[in-house]
């Protein structure tokens, strides 16, 4: 398997995980939400209850890929082959 194909398959798996996991996670409150509901101050939360899980997850994934790809390009070792420089 080529490196480029491996990256595309990895990206597809990451996107699928973000979309599926965000629907599962957003239907269940986390620990902080649970405590806020139990203590009676959940109504003071700003932006609570929005179902932007998949969108926020995809934005986060793209941000991580952009930063990681940029760091990879910046920090990689120079190639000995001058034709390989792209």
Shape: elongated
Secondary-structure-derived class: mainly alpha
CA-CA gap between termini: 21 Å
Rg for CA atoms: 20 Å
Q: What is the β-strand count?
A: 0
What percent of the residues sit in helical stretches (DSSP H or I)? 55-70%
Order of helices and strands: HHH
Q: What is the mean predicted local confidence, pLDDT?
A: 80
Main location: membrane
Organism: Nocardioides taihuensis
Keywords: Cell membrane, Membrane, Transmembrane, Transmembrane helix
Domain PDGLE: 4-46
Can you summarize this structure?
The chain contains three helices and no strands. The protein is mostly helical and 86 residues long.
List keywords for this structure.
PDGLE_dom; mainly alpha; 86 residues; single chain; 3 helices
What does this 3D model show about the protein?
The protein has 86 residues and is an all-alpha fold. The chain has a domain of 43 residues. Helix content is 65%, strand content 0%. The protein has 3 helices and no strands. Helix 1 runs antiparallel to helix 3. The longest helix has 24 residues. The protein is elongated. The two termini are 21 Å apart. The mean pLDDT is 80.
List the helices and strands and how they pair.
Elements: H1 3-26, H2 31-39, H3 53-75
Domain PDGLE: 4-46
Keywords: Cell membrane, Membrane, Transmembrane, Transmembrane helix
Protein name: PDGLE domain-containing protein
């Amino acid at each position: 398997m080529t490196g480029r194909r491996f990256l595309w398959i990895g990206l597809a798996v990451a996107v699928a995980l973000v979309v599926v996991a965000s629907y599962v996670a957003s239907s269940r409150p986390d620990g902080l939400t649970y405590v806020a509901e139990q203590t009676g101050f959940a109504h003071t939360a700003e932006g609570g209850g929005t179902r932007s899980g998949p969108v926020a997850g995809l934005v986060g994934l793209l941000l991580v890929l952009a930063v990681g790809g940029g760091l990879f390009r910046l920090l990689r070792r120079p190639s000995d082959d001058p034709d390989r420089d792209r």
